[in-house]
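User: My collaborator sent over this chain with a note saying "see what the structure looks like." That's all I know about it. Can you take a look?
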Amino acid sequence: MKIRQLKAFCAASAIALIAASGPAAAGPGDDTLRAAMTEEILNLDYNYTTKREYIILAQLTDATLFDLDPVSQEYRPAIATGYEWIDDLTLDLTLRDDVQFHDGTVLTPDDVAYTYNWIADQRSESNANGVVSRWLDEAVVTGPNTVRFKLKSVYPLVLRDMANRVMLRKSGTYGEGDGINRDAMANSLIATGPYKVKSFEPGTELVLERNEAFFGKKPEIKTIVVRNIPDIGTQQAELMSGGIDWMFKVPLDLAESLGATPMATHLSGPDLRVGFMVLDAAGHTDPDGPLTNVLVRRAINHALNTPDMAKHLIGGSAEPIHAACHPAQFGCDQSVTRYEYDPEKAKALLAEAGYPDGFPLEVWAYRDKAASEAIAADLTAVGIDLNLRYVKLESLNQARAAREIPAYFGTWGSGGTADTAAIARIHFDIDSDRNMSGDTALADLVLSAEQTADQEKRKAIYSEALGVIADQAYWAPLFSYSANYLVSPNLDFPLDPDGMPRLQNATWK
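Assistant: Without extra context I'll predict from the sequence alone. Here is the result:
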């Protein structure tokens, strides 16, 4: 029995079992949304975490200086009511005077300045340090409701970082000197968001209750319970029996099978994660190897049936992509050179490059085995003697850092940031081991986009850079990903175009 058929069979069997025992009540009876997450929740302070699960929770518990509209990609006032660039390196912010922390303390400019200065300090060891220390020289209080940010250099993504990455804490939260406590907010979070922590058992359950003193629009649902349930089958059973109302990262087969019943609703929306192949154009693994030839790299692009991969292996709203970014990201120019699926053209290009009988190629991969195998099959079909090495991510990272990988299938989610900067810098900075192009001019071009605050100029720079990447076939772009959810039929859960789940926007039908 094929894997797809087996999953559907298992789902159908489980549905039959639940149905036989009679339906269980689920819904808004106690105004509590119960969500399941596979990954363990161990730390509530997003200043010290990174995973998607923690981003989702931070949007519930924290508020930031600005909000980013997921549709228009415009920055909206939040804790900051306005801003003014005094010059290219000086940004003044005006703050609301009615923002309260969850313990009732009123937020002040001192809290804002403290938070940013702490995170920019290397001693903080914050996961946000690398982002903030890149641009922040110092944050200083300039009035009863104003803060000035002094920048190290021109940086056009300051508002993005303020909207996405830095969660505000009370002055002195993390201590000082020998009394530094980086885990101060890990279990007992005091923040400013629409929900506050009622109880937390790390790795087991988090209970959030609506913050009635929240300065912004209050969520409609009073209580959210987040349960750690590592097994997807257990999540499925809980959803069908009414134990949970929401699950995400659902395998497509299960989402479609269970979503076809009255017990659950299948939602499929966009995700900023994209899949791609990176090719050793620089010749790190072989200075005279086939991948240093642009005709070979173009042949590889033509050999890959990305429309079928997107439709049948990723599914949902996944689509083939043609540029080294997600189409929803600012600056992701879609007018670059496209390599349509054409195996015969791929063979002709290989022959023109001097490889009519193909060549041996080792491709590394660490996730989405079905897609990895499809890539291998497509390249084999045009004559490439392909060896697929399917490994753990840690092994791939180590081998890539040692420049031992000629090609790999990778993915990138951009941290949920709908800006090409979130994918371009880390993959095309010349000092990044992810950059296998060896193109220093391209690296300089990519980084120059972060040296201007002129958005139209940034867009033009990214268009030029993406055009070079496509023309030189440094990547073989594959597909965007799809986010699959299963929710209670009683729950209305809106999906945003940036693929970020926002439980605070959920309502009961």
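A starting point for your reply to your collaborator: The two ends are 39 Å apart (CA to CA).
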